[in-house]
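TL;DR need structure tokens for one chain.
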Amino acid sequence: MKPHEDTNADTPQDETPEPRELLLLRAGAHAFAVFADETDGVADGLKPTPLPHAPRAVLGVVCVRGRMRTVLDPLALVGDNEETESATASTPLFIVALRGDEQLALAAESDAGVVRINIDNITPPDTADPSLRGTFEHDGARVLVLDPSRLFDAALRGTERRRRRT
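>> reply
TL;DR here they are.
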């Protein structure tokens, strides 16, 4: 083979991407999803321990699979503050641990299972919300696809992080 020869010359470039699995969650009146390969497990019946002076989107911390996770409220992440307090205060939570260095988890009222969809079926979000990858329709409901790599920044939006003393 020559040094600059294209090894993919025989493969068609128009192939549709393989379907990906998304974990569906329900919080309040909203349906959310994260890619299944970005999760690290689901736990039920856990109640987050609140953190003092935490942003509205941070419900507290829980221990899932031997790691402390910061639990985020997806309703607060997408700006549904009216429903946030009533939905997460009394309902037993499903906690979805997310992969990544930030040790995050999402709170939900129910785990709606896994669905396989083609990436092309995810439409860009209507808003400039950085925590959303897009939306898709499932069983007549609009599902918001969250981007775990941007959830921490979205949770801290509008709050000032502590500065180190010098």
